[in-house]
């Protein structure tokens, strides 16, 4: 996790957690390390031409004046020297301070950015600039803090993702441990020829990776040097009760907030918020201590296990064709323009007057099959609701999604085979009186080829007009 802190002096500090240790790095140093830039460019990127906003401009100027390092090479060397003792023997001693800083940023700063992208450091620069602008808006009082207990702020930690993180860490420990044993044998003069018997002897001296994973599955206890950025180290496995088939199957649709929250005395984490409608069952939660923490997915709700097989370059091309301004022109735009974020990366900008039209065009691409069907599209036009504006798009896995009817697309499909670029309105049809009709609707919803079906996420649901029953629909 990357956390941005605002200080009373107006400076911003980035908090990184590396091997269970917290490090607070001035945001300006990371900006200089990520991109070969100048203080003037950073100032213009944050202020965005808003000369009347002295609150932001004065703090940005003060933040840039607090540090004497102004070149990228000096900052990279400085940060790399500070973090050398943190990595220890996990990095080669021949690695320079500059190279070590690049490795630190690749492994611990905005890891969601594609490491194979040649512009990954520039993308991280844009993300950090956006975070600073949002933090200043929060400190000034223009927006309200996001609710960490809201379902729109959550993703699901799937078992496969958990096992993958554990196996990756244990393999790294195995390789580092094996390398350390070879170096120790060499220093003591006992290094022999690398035949099969000698290799097997070295491998037998190190714990097996499979045993570590088996221990996690058997006991539910996590033994990790890094903590894997999780808030608990136990309680990762449960025993599935077999009282009846429905009780047994319900375990595989359950979602637990985490053992850490069971000891909290506040009840805010247990509340069922309105945006959970359609994603979590409002009644299927046990009594007692796990009440509100152990929930179950609603019947039509699905969790994305894998990222879609879709080229993001094609996605960006569709966005530009639909009216998005490329991010290369962002520094020349005014402060009123909203950022367009795709999977947590700034890809462009859009005029707030056109943000709704752009979102509707993308929604049409999504329903017609030109974009992944589980794409999250959340347009926020302005700060009227005290929410930071922007167009937020997401195709990442581990998100909750549910199907609804997009009435505009459904009606257009019945009259013609094309989709009109108009405001999309959605509606969910539920009929509890007739079981046959309900079963028919569910079969239609799960049919991917059915026109008018759109998959939405909790955050997306907050900004859509969704009818629960037909009487709620309004033109």
TrEMBL record:
Its EC number is 2.7.7.6. This is DNA-directed RNA polymerase. Residues 11-155, 239-303 form the RNA polymerase Rpb2 domain. One of its GO terms (biological process) is DNA-templated transcription. GO terms for molecular function: DNA binding; DNA-directed RNA polymerase activity; ribonucleoside binding. Residues 408-446 are annotated as: Disordered. GO terms for cellular component: DNA-directed RNA polymerase complex; nucleus. Its main location: nucleus. The lineage of its organism: Eukaryota, Sar, Rhizaria, Cercozoa, Chlorarachniophyceae. SUPFAM superfamilies: beta and beta-prime subunits of DNA dependent RNA-polymerase (SSF64484). The keyword Transferase applies. Residues 419-428 have a biased composition (Basic and acidic residues). It comes from Lotharella globosa. Residues 408-418 have a biased composition (Polar residues). Residues 347-402 form the DNA-directed RNA polymerase I subunit RPA2 domain. It is found in: Nucleus. Coiled coil: none annotated. It is an enzyme of class 2 (transferase). Belongs to the RNA polymerase beta chain family. Residues 429-438 have a biased composition (Acidic residues). Keywords: DNA-directed RNA polymerase, Nucleotidyltransferase, Nucleus, Transcription, Transferase.
